[in-house]
Design a protein that fits this description.
about 325 residues, six-stranded antiparallel sheet
């Protein structure tokens, strides 16, 4: 579709009668040394085994006819190291989360400085599905899940950066210097799992406590892994938000480097590596999707709105372009 037609075919959200939930605070909350014990229950172990090239879902993989013994030994070693990580405080988990008054304007999300909603703090710019949809399906954008400016509703958007990477690199290098590559890889794999668990745990606190729109939520870890909850936490660089450059805006909003000690590289990777960042959306219709390929007219619109050159925009969005940017 041409971009304008895709924009017209947005997600059909009924805003009349909707009351956006109000967060318990606006601005930032910083966590300097989070309790690792609190993160254990939200670890998703399946990707841990995948990182060791062992295919199968946890906990079934432990009893698998082919890889069960190997997986069980690996899991036992992981539990031993996890206890050591916690007891000896190898890792210092840090996080910063924030909520801001917001409204959508096309595919932009206006982030306001305060509740007066008169001063724009910044804008987030989102990519919209641009393929021809069948059965009257909408062309989705993350901007669809924030109340449009013309509704006059007082909506909000959240953001987060969490990390369990502080302390990992130094200890991993010490293991490697002692020719213990196994422990080095194990530590990095566990730090990655803990970072994802931290993101899951913090999102749970957001839903029940900080934003508080599902205070009655009671889900098992399996249900959390299946994302059976209200609201989403999409990240720049992932299918619903393929533009990595939006991390710059997110990190500025959160003052993430000062508050959580997480930096962005020139390619928008996060360092330390065991870090997760993204946005919080509360709307009950909000869901994950893939934008798919987009056309040059949308790239031109994004470049103009983000005040970047078309060439820059094409560079960062190259995986989702439906044309060859020559």
């Amino acid at each position: 579709l041409d971009y304008q037609s895709a924009l017209t075919n947005k997600s059909p959200i009924e805003w009349r009668g909707y009351i956006p939930p109000v967060p318990s605070f606006t601005g930032l909350k910083v966590f300097k040394d989070y309790d690792l014990n609190a993160l254990i229950d939200t670890i998703d172990w399946t990707p841990f085994f995948i990182s060791w090239d062992l295919a199968g879902k946890y906990p079934n993989i432990l009893n698998d006819d082919i890889v069960g013994d190997t997986a069980s030994q690996l899991f036992a070693d992981a539990q031993t190291m996890l206890k050591q990580i916690i007891k000896e405080q190898w890792i210092t988990p840090k996080a910063t989360i924030g909520f801001w008054p917001a409204a959508s304007d096309g595919d932009d999300i206006i982030v306001y400085q305060d509740e007066n909603r008169t001063t724009e703090l910044t804008r987030l710019h989102h990519v919209r599905q641009q393929m021809q949809r069948h059965d009257n399906k909408p062309n989705q954008s993350l901007a669809d899940y924030i109340a449009p400016l013309e509704t006059g509703l007082n909506d909000y958007i959240g953001g987060f950066v969490v990390t369990t990477g502080h302390g990992v690199e130094e200890r991993a290098k010490a293991f490697e210097a002692a020719h213990d590559d196994y422990s080095s890889i194990m530590l990095k794999a566990l730090a990655d799992r803990l970072a994802e668990a931290f993101a899951e745990h913090m999102h749970l606190r957001v839903r029940k406590e900080f934003w508080g729109y599902r205070q009655d939520e009671s889900l098992s870890n399996e249900e959390l892994i299946k994302e059976n909850y209200q609201g989403i936490r999409p990240a720049p660089g992932y299918p619903a938000c393929p533009d990595h450059t939006e991390k710059t805006t997110l990190f500025k909003l959160l003052n993430a480097t000062a508050n959580a000690g997480v930096e962005l590289t020139s390619s928008f990777a996060m360092t330390p590596a065991a870090s997760v960042s993204g946005f919080y959306y509360s709307h009950p219709d909000a869901k994950y999707f893939a934008t798919g390929k987009i056309g040059k007219d949308q790239v031109e619109s994004l470049a103009a709105r983000k005040q970047m050159t078309i060439k820059e925009m094409e560079r960062w969005l190259s995986p989702v372009l439906n044309y060859d940017p020559q």
